[in-house]
Design a protein that fits this description.
Helices cover 13% and strands 37% of the residues. With 546 residues, it is mostly beta strands. The protein has 5 domains: 162 residues, Immunoglobulins (Immunoglobulin-like), CATH 2.60.40.10; 84 residues, Immunoglobulin-like; 79 residues, Immunoglobulin-like (Sandwich), CATH 2.60.40.10; 87 residues, Sandwich (Immunoglobulin-like); 75 residues. Helix 1 runs antiparallel to helix 2. The radius of gyration is 64 Å and the shape is rod-shaped.
Length: 546
């Protein structure tokens, strides 16, 4: 700028200017005061340099941008002036006569206003310039020219920016009760003020453009698209310039929603007779939902809690909770089926047979109970018994059929009946299984028959031998009159000895046959596995040997 250039032969002198702002209430005659404060005014030090490079080492130079709002007063205070100053001139924008605000002449002292003075500027004897009641048109460059006795001119300048005062802002809204997922909300920061910046805050956080938040080009209008309950809360708008900022009062956006599907707790469906029923129904809704409890179509209570003391079997049924939002006109229902049970009694087992032979006829075990609506389980030796190929269960698990019966099926059987609130087991019933013999009949029966047969054979042989020996000792010519004997005529030279020889041969053949029988029986018994040699079998073997 023109004033900042000075002839180089005039040198360079730094100028220190004191900037003072004050309110109208605190303004006073400061023409003779040179200090650091005036009433409640704030004091800011700044300096301006001409374009020449030389500077006294004891001078502090700092450049600052000056900004003020309309209505404020500003004081530009000059200190550390050079000696032998004869004249001091203030200019606005340019150092030319029509831009002169005023002139201070020393020796003698005289202050005169220039053509650029607006009757709000005052120059004091110390060189300070006071501008009262700033307006936006006061924005500009303020220059000072100092002339010494030697005719040397020194220059300084400062930029002053004046902003319009920020208005008190507030928020307007197009819909104060938007419906969730259906309505969009437009928030506007009022009033509109040129040269200002707008920002929005939600829950103290700065709002940024997103898929749910749209801002106008100047950010004065905020649109919340398809509001949800998460958009509920306080919104603020901020208006600011380079001097200061103002915030609106918070606007609390309320979003109408719900009711959501109600939740019934506890989620317990089975109760014992005499137990208390206490249910709670809750849902999310704005405004809060209205609650009603029904059993069937009968209204029970109009609160979110349901309590029924000492349940009876007749209290079983379907309970429903109805929730309704009176503003959105939506309602939802949730049902819970409650069943009241009697504790079960201990069952008993009825068996078709408790002592059976392996692989013989099947065994049927039936679990007897007077309780209804119960489940049945079977246990063998306290272990859960599952259905298998040869373990058949009836449709309701009440009857267990074992076919065929094996030795592994021997043990203690129990049945258990249960309902959702209780369970009971029967007393044990023991199933005994005996092994099947190799002949196809049970081992015990086979041994008993074998013992009887051997004893009969032994007696028959003994009696036969006795009768034979007795007859052989008689006179060969004498015969029992009851005997009818046919004798063949003797042949050959040995005919006289034929009777004796015949008797001896008969006796020898009978004992030989008996010995062979004993041998065959013994071999049969000895061929059995060691595990089948029982005490009864040992007795049979002893009798055969005798």
């Amino acid at each position: 700028m023109e004033p900042t250039s000075a002839p180089s032969h005039r040198g360079a002198v730094p100028w220190h200017i004191l900037l003072l702002t004050e309110t109208k209430e605190d303004s006073a005659d400061v023409g003779t005061q040179q200090g650091d404060s005036y009433g409640r005014a704030s004091l800011i030090t700044f300096s301006a340099l001409p374009t020449t490079a030389q500077q006294s080492p004891d001078i502090f130079v700092k450049l600052m941008l000056l900004q003020f709002s309309e209505g404020n007063d500003v004081l530009l205070l000059v200190h550390n002036l050079p000696e032998n100053v004869t004249q001091l001139d203030w200019f606005r924008d340019k150092c030319q006569p029509d831009k002169n605000i005023g002139t201070l002449t020393l020796n003698p002292e005289n202050i005169s206003n220039g053509p650029a003075n607006r009757d709000r500027e005052t120059i004091y004897p110390n060189g300070s310039l006071l501008i009262r009641n700033l307006i936006k048109q006061d924005t500009g460059i303020y220059l000072i020219k100092v002339t010494t006795v030697s005719g040397e001119e020194k220059y300084g300048q400062r930029i002053l920016r004046v902003y319009e005062p920020l208005p008190k802002v507030h928020i307007t809204v197009n819909n104060s009760n938007p419906l969730e997922q259906e309505d969009s909300v437009v928030l506007t920061c009022e009033p509109k003020s040129p040269g200002t910046t707008y920002r929005w805050f939600f829950n103290t956080l700065l709002v940024q453009p997103s898929t749910s938040h749209q801002l106008s080009s100047d950010s004065r209008i905020l649109t919340v698209l398809h509001v949800t309950r998460n958009n509920t809360g306080p919104y603020k708008c901020e208006i600011s310039n380079q001097m200061n900022a103002h915030h609106s009062d918070p606007f609390n956006l309320t979003v109408l929603y719900g009711p959501d599907g109600p939740i019934i707790s506890p989620s317990k469906y089975s109760y014992s007779r005499g137990e208390n029923l206490s249910l709670s129904c809750l849902t999310a809704s704005n405004p809060p939902a209205q609650y009603s409890w029904y059993v069937g179509k009968k209204l029970l209570v109009s609160t979110h809690n349901l309590f029924i003391p000492s349940l009876s079997l007749n209290d079983s049924g379907s309970f429903s909770c109805l929730v309704r939002n009176s503003v959105t006109q939506f309602n939802r229902t949730m049902e819970i089926n409650i069943t009241v049970f009697e504790p079960v009694a201990a069952p008993s087992i009825q068996a078709s047979n408790t002592t059976v032979t392996e692989c013989a006829s099947p065994v049927a075990l039936t679990c007897l109970t007077d309780d209804t609506g119960v489940s049945t389980r079977w246990y063998l030796n306290d272990k859960d018994l599952q259905s298998a190929e040869r373990r058949m269960l009836s449709a309701n698990n009440r009857t267990l059929i074992l076919q065929p019966v094996l030795m592994a099926d021997e043990g203690d059987y129990q049945c258990e009946v249960s309902n959702p609130i209780s369970s009971k087991r029967s007393d044990d019933i023991r199933l005994q299984v005996t092994r099947k013999g190799t002949t196809g009949m049970p081992v015990g029966t086979f041994l008993n028959i074998l013992i009887g047969v051997l004893i009969g054979v032994k007696l028959t042989v003994a009696i036969g031998c006795f009768l034979f020996l007795r007859r052989s000792k008689r006179n060969p010519g004498q015969h029992d009159p009851r005997e009818q004997q046919f004798t063949a005529p003797p042949l050959g030279p040995d005919a006289p000895r034929s009777s004796a020889v015949q008797s001896e041969n008969l006796e020898s053949s009978q004992w030989s046959a008996f010995s062979e029988f004993k041998m065959s029986v013994g071999m049969e018994l000895l061929s059995r596995p060691e595990a089948q040699i029982t005490p009864q079998l040992s007795l049979v073997m002893l009798q055969v040997q005798e």
